[in-house]
Amino acid sequence: MSISKAEVAKVAHLARLAIPEERLEGYTHTISDILDLVAQMNAVNTDGIEPLSNPLDAVQLLREDKVTETNQREVYQSIAPRVEEGLYLVPKVIE
């Protein structure tokens, strides 16, 4: 699938991109190549192939879910301008 210089210029205008005339041919060629690649990928038969979340056959190593630091809420909130019942109070910004 190829795209014309006029189509590239139109899309650039809609996206508010300024493409110099001398670079328009290069962009047209590059975008056409990308569209050709997408067309090739769409032509591949993928029936019966399960999607992968990761192309590598690896297992995600997870750490043990345990507390490793002490609660320092009072220390952090001691310098806050306004605190109530362990919560930071901030000015209302949305009505």
Please trace the helix and strand order, writing H or E for each element: HHHEE
Number of DSSP E strands: 2
- Largest pleated sheet: 2 strands, antiparallel
Q: Summarize model confidence as the mean pLDDT.
A: 91
Percent helix range:
40-55%
Roughly how many Å apart are the termini? 51 Å
- The computed structural class is mainly alpha
Q: Note the beta-strand portion.
A: under 5%
Tally of separate helices: 3
Description:
- It is a single chain.
- The protein is mainly alpha-helical.
- It has a domain of 39 residues.
- It is built from three helices and two strands.
- The protein has a two-stranded antiparallel ribbon with strand order 1-2.
- The model has no long low-confidence stretch (mean pLDDT 91).
What's a quick, concise take on this entry?
With 95 residues, the protein is mainly alpha-helical.
Task: Give the helices and strands, then pairings.
Layout: H1 5-14, H2 21-43, H3 73-77, E1 83-84, E2 87-88
Antiparallel strand pairs: 1-2
